Amino acid sequence: MKFDMGQQTLGTLAKQTSGASEDLGALIKALIAAAEPLTGKFNGAGKTAFDSFKARADGITAELNASLRAILGGVQGMDTAFIQGEQEQAQNAQQNLRAANFDAARFNRA
Distance between CA atoms of 26 and 7, rounded to whole angstroms? Predict the structure, then answer.
């Protein structure tokens, strides 16, 4: 199995996740606005659930955005780790290349 990820993959993912967080908040607000004409149309358990949803909408939005921010933090942490790992790998390769004795590896036929 081969895992090949471009250098910009996680950075791009972080940008997209950040944008999704803003979009999600806007969509929830649009959902609440779209549901507004239903106010007063429910009775009993339906009314209780609808009123609870409306009352918790800001909290739900905040919780979802906090979750997305946590995901974004994880993506940024992975991005940092991958960049550092790639730099260390390049440094190690250069160091080992300088230390290699290529003359000793030559096979002369005499």
Answer: 31
Rounded CA separation 26/51 (Å): 20
Domain 11-98 has CATH 3.30.980: no
Q: Which two tokens stand for residue 23?
A: 């979009």
What DSSP string describes 52-84? HHHHHHHHHHHHHHHHHHHHHHHHHHHHHHHHH
For 72-84, the pLDDT digits (tens) are: 888 888 888 888 8
> Residues 40-48: what's their mean pLDDT?
87
Q: What was the pLDDT predicted at 88? A: 93
HEC string of 96-109 equals HHHHCCCHHHCCCC
Question: Which letter does DSSP use for residue 39 in this model?
Answer: T
Non-local (6+) Cβ contacts of 110 within 8 A are none
Residues ≥6 apart with Cβ < 8 Å to 10: 75, 76, 78, 79, 82
The tokens describing 45, both together, are 């358990």
